[in-house]
Amino acid sequence: MSKIIENLYYSKNDEWLKDEGNNIMVIGITDYAQDQLGDIVYVEEIKNGTKVSKGDVLTTVESVKAVSDVYSPISGEIVEVNQKVINEPSTLNQDPYGEGWFAKIKMSKPDEIKELMTSSEYNDFRKE
Amino acid sequence: MRYIPSTKEQQEEMLKAIGVTSFEQLIDSIPDSVKLKRKLNIPSALSEFELDDKISMISQKNVNFQKFKPLVGAGAYRHFIPEAQKALLQRQEFWTCYTPYQPELSQGTLQSMFEYQSYIARLTKMEVVVPSIFDGASASAEAILMSLRLTHKNKIIVSTLIHPHYLETIKTYLAPHNIIIEEISSENGLTSLEKLKQSIDNDTACILVQSPNFFGGIESIKTFSEIAHQKDILLIQVITESMSLGLLKSPGDMGADIVVGNTQSFGLELDFGGPHNAFLATRKKYIRQIPGRIAGETTDKNGKRCFVMTFRAREQDIRREKATSNICTNHNLNVIASNIYLSLMGTEGLYQYSLLNAKKAHYFEKKLLETGKFVTKYKYPYFNEFLITYKGKDMERLKKVLIDNGFVPPLLIQKFYSDTPLQNTLLFAITEIFSRNELDSICNLLSQ
Amino acid sequence: MKLIFEKSIPGRVSFSLPDDLFEDIKIEDILPADFIEKDKKNLSEVSEVDVVRHFTKLSKYNYGVDDGLYPLGSCTMKYNPRINEKMAALNNFTKAHPFAPTELVQGSLEVMFELNKLLCEITGMDQFTMAPASGAHGELTGILIMRKYFLDQGQNRHKILIPDSAHGTNPASAAMGAFDVVEIKSNENGTVDIDALSKAMDEQTVGLMLTNPNTVGLYDEGIEQIEKIIHGKGGLLYYDGANLNASLGILRPGDTGFDIVHLNLHKTFSTPHGGGGPGSGVIGVKSNLIPYLPTPLVDFNPENNMYIFKEAGTKSIGMIRSFWGNFSVLVKTLCWILSLGPEHLYQASRNSIINANYVLTKLKDYYKPAYDRFCGHECTLTGREYKKYGIKTLQIAKRLMDYGYHPPTIYFPHFEPYADETIMIEPPESEGKEILDSFINVMIKISQEAKENPEILNSAPHVTPVSQTDDVLAVKQAILTYDDEIKNNDKLNYSDENINF
Lengths: 128, 448, 501
Prior knowledge:
The complex is a heterotrimer of chains A (128), B (448) and C (501). In chain A, 19% of the residues lie in helices and 34% in strands. Chain A is built from four helices and nine strands, in the order βββαβββββααβα. Chain A has a six-stranded antiparallel beta sheet. In chain A, a hairpin with a 2-residue loop joins strand 2 and strand 3 (24-29). Chain A is globular and about 35 Å long. In chain B, strand 11 (295-299) and strand 12 (305-309) form a beta hairpin. By secondary structure, chain B is α/β, with parallel strands linked by helices. In chain B, helix 3 (83-89) runs antiparallel to helix 11, helix 5 packs parallel to helix 11 and helix 6 (136-151) packs across helix 7. In chain C, the strands form three sheets. A seven-stranded mixed beta sheet of chain C has the order 1-7-6-5-4-2-3, sandwiched between helices. Chain C starts with 26 loop residues before the first helix and ends with a helix. By secondary structure, chain C is an alpha/beta fold. Chain C is globular and about 75 Å long. In chain C, a hairpin with a 4-residue loop joins strand 8 (297-301) and strand 9 (306-310). Classes of the chains: A alpha+beta (128), B alpha/beta (448), C alpha/beta (501). Chains in contact: A-B, A-C, B-C. Chains B and C meet through helix 1, helix 2, helix 3, helix 4 and helix 5 of B and helix 2, helix 3, helix 4, helix 5 and helix 6 of C.
């Protein structure tokens, strides 16, 4: 059973979002996602300052047997990038909800939060 | 039939076990309208000795090529292949097996790939080597596609002195992609640096130049790379005569970003044009954009060193339409063939043979000029292939004299460069297989 | 096993030189110094004896078709006849230069011309090009032909339909042709969903790429409807011939509506796999597409009884490789077809279908099939029920190695909900019944081991030189050459005594 944390938002593409206040959301991938991928060996560079729209590819995550695009679940501007996951991709496997965050995005359309799932909705969505 | 072991009785037993009374029930799902209702209209099966006779007779309609040495290269070079290599390649474990997806059953193939990658890396002074793409032409096209992915630009610059088949193939591969292809013409047998400088701009992804080029000339790769790197353009060097790597400066030292090499000269037969093989070598920073398969070193659960196919996430079976290339089956046996060849040549052997190639070709050119019937068209440094113009009028007679005496004639360069002042100009290639006597008697023939 | 570099001893030679080294020609006179490498490039220094022993030993770490059953699905690992090897190795063929004047290579041209005739008859197509070097290369060629065909008609078709069951090369090739891939779902019978196909096909779509039987080994009965839908909107039907071994002498793709066909000569036609090639992916087309084939083609001039190269016209897609084709592979194919004749070509397919259904029948109670119906020349089973014992399908495959078998294809094809944890078994016609019986017994034994002794599967294989290679480490350390290894020596996590397997 994969881990789901309450008080986070979730997307259908297995991303989690944490509200940091000030319209800034921290983005990562869920425990289910990292488990599906297997040992992650590579994360593509994310450029700080990039403007993204909801659904744009944020980065690409590569394991031995798969490559996955990580989509931005919201629109906005990337204000901070977590170099740790770029330099040590295994962080995503070890701590997907903590040290394994990708980027912080300042939302340009805060209404988009309404389209995201709560932790219990994501739990149902991913129930096997 | 000797390739189909199960007897009639065994087949009946199997049908019974399956639970059908006839084979036709197994192919019930095929609509009747498409099933063949007649025998295929092809010749009845030949016995093995009849087949041997028939195919041998067809082969006799070729001239005796063992005897007929080629004075032409143009992308395919006849070199001597040591017998030990051929004997080793007979081992069925090397050639009846499949792609090494199961490393525990394929260490022979995988270690050979790794050793070969190591050899090519040293010969080219590049860091990452894809050991097998079908040939130099498709590998050149893949190199260009790779440079387009890396730079996100949409113009490429190609020298007109690359192998004409390679240029054709590049155009075919690029046709769907809205890419501007600018061709740089030559001056005195080498790619024009002036024209190159005028062509490059901020939209250029790569420059593709062959060295030694199609005329045999050695290009100034260092100068090309300096020009390219001023504008963040990738320099791709193409090599059709890999034997040149035994003597000439390594592409990596001269600033090439991607090197594509036709390795038919490393122990592969001419085979009327294929199958040959090509490597694509580049820098480690580009590894995620390389096409094709690559072997890497790892350990197994007991800590033993072993080899596996690696960086697979780029490949078609995982990435499908987002793969760096569609390559699946490549020319892997030719990797093993070249690996064995290079092991048999070794450091000293490859150097000595390279040297012989260069010396014999230059000796032959000198002797041709001494006949008075030939004149140098362009003076440029070359390895084992050069252009020379025939002063006589009768090209047909020259060709006939050579054929009558057991030589495949050199290439008439106008076959590919018809709109240039290159009438009566021939492209000769001389490898180590010619003795001094032979070269002297060829000149004798041509001086009459 | 030690690398050739680790066996190098300075001064050892494995080559020979003639007496006359052309010392009269000085290298500094013929080549500028800055074109020549100062130091010799360091390869290896071993004797011929060392090389022979090295590669002899290396070969023993491989498993070939001659060693036993190689039941990889859609790979058609059949026997590679030795007479075919001898014919392809004839000097007049191997030493023929591709630019030799055509009057000197009439034999080589005859091989290509005759092979074309035979392949056309076998497949029901009108003309083949021998240029493509592999199946995927053939797919690219076919896709470029489709693209040019529609451009010529002034039609801008940018989409292509590909079943979700398709081999990965299909969408990859389509992408190289700059087409947008539209995936068509399979129905509960494992074949193309006709409704989905009908909805997806329109006048912006070039057509459909189809393997038939498909990659789960099932013949798509909807082929007549599929043909109508695709041709109905002016599209083209492309046949991926990887599974032709189920159809020789039974049906011809050209008769079932396909416009373009690629064949894998290294699968159906018995030419060796070579550890990953060389093969050949020749392309056959219907007459309306002949002008688009790559150049040149081989033709016969009856006026002087000579074979010639015929340059293709302006509609040709151009060249897709240098020279004319993988010639030695073509010779072997010609030999195989002439050795079998019409009767045995049919028997080849017939036996491959019987073999696959026999294995399916005997194993279906132990490995639930993806689809409960007769299969073609390969069957798709699944290893799903062993998950509850903690066994992944991968470990079933690895345990097979302990019994002396090369595993079947695993995890491909993968499209849920039926084709999941797949084990795809193709026992070609060159496998006799007793081989199948032994394999079946071993598979049953392994299924019991999975329940009673899962640890022996999870630690498999045990008898191979290496076991359970660390694929993650391979990517992480990225040691791709011996020089990489030397650079990383202090970071490598194995000691000297562990090096030799």
